[in-house]
Amino acid sequence: MKINTRLSEYVRACFTGIWIESHEHQDALTEIAQLCRDEQWQLATWDIEAGLSVSGQTEQDASSNDPLAAIRSINALATPDGTAILILQNFHRFLQSAEVVQALARQIITGKQNRTIVVVLSPVVQIPTELEKMFVVMEHDLPNRQELDEIVAACLMVGGVITLAIG
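The structure assignment produced for this chain is given below.
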């Protein structure tokens, strides 16, 4: 099952804390962004270097590299009849802070009322004890053989040049 299908099911069920284990962040972000466009969900992403980036806005707030501010930012995206998703990249690095853990717990609870979803995108699953029951964990799998064949076929159809190293 693709990440979009599983993520869509969790969002519709109002799981407001989702942890995605992935070593391919850009692929995961691309898939999630497409899902948000299809569903008309508001999307924001955050990482320590780039800061907060809200889909549809041309400016990134690179000055907002504070993890607490990132968590609090999602409430500004909430709408009465919509869903907002905040993706926190490599956020496992910030979960040693009691303030960050508390803010994340509060946001996950608040998210059930205003349909704001916090997604942690990380290569490892390191959830603090206080948050374990608040997150559902998903794996973003690498493409299997059939999916790789489909990718190659699609590239060939559009005239792409593909070089494969078989080892």
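Interim note for the steering committee: The chain has a mean pLDDT of 86. DSSP finds five helices and seven strands in the chain.
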